[in-house]
Design a protein that fits this description.
heterodimer; A: mainly beta; five-stranded antiparallel β-sheet; B: mainly alpha; Cyclin A, domain 1; about 0% strand
Chain lengths: ~90, ~110
């Protein structure tokens, strides 16, 4: 399975609010960061949550600047890493 | 903040008070719940996957979610998934709970 994004690439997290089980934290939706690494391919937890192991997806570790995540970041130059599945990411 | 639907469990960035960092021993019943979840997850195919457990925990009503402890949420969610799959029935569970309550009071 080919990874769509490469380490170092800028990405934006989709601003989706679907019902159901979702692993993308609310606070990170719509925020932009950089691919830190490709973690590998895993079954989509959104399907596993309903007992369906049928939808492999590439998982990435994405690095965000705190100042890009929070309006008033205590340490704006710190970063936060969040693991996000490919279908939640778009290129910028 | 926007007014998009947000899960009761999805707290990142919200004020939540102090975090209790003290170490504590788990009760025996909590260890049993943990073992039960692991055993159900090891079946092939798994009867209750971690992701199913999480989904069911997120589905617990907000008031109950806030009131429950960690493993109370787990056993509630395990029960929910097993009922969805027809492994146990509400009626069966109700009878068993009543039976145990009677035994405890005796």
């Amino acid at each position: 399975m080919n990874a769509r994004f490469k380490p170092g690439q800028r990405v934006r997290v989709r601003e989706w609010y679907p019902p159901g089980h979702v692993r993308t934290p609310y606070y990170i939706r719509g925020k932009s960061g950089e691919i830190e690494r490709v973690c590998g391919v895993f079954d989509n937890p959104e399907r596993l949550a309903y007992a369906k192991a049928d939808d492999p997806k590439t998982l990435y570790r994405v690095r965000f600047r705190q100042s890009d995540v929070w309006e008033r970041a205590e340490r704006p130059n710190d970063t936060i890493d969040v693991e996000i599945y490919e279908h939640w990411l778009e290129g910028t | 903040m926007t007014s998009h639907p947000r899960g009761i469990h999805d707290l990142g960035g919200l004020p939540a008070g102090e975090i209790d960092r003290s170490e504590h021993q788990n009760d025996f019943w909590e260890q049993r719940v943990d073992a039960l979840q692991r055993a159900l997850g090891l079946l092939d195919p798994p009867l209750v996957r971690t992701d199913e457990l999480r989904r069911a925990i997120e589905g617990i009503g907000a008031q109950a979610y806030d009131r429950m402890s960690y493993y109370e949420r787990w056993i509630t969610a395990i029960t929910e998934v097993l009922m969805e799959k027809g492994v146990i029935a509400v009626d069966e569970l109700g009878r068993k709970i009543a039976e145990i309550e009677a035994r405890e009071q005796a």
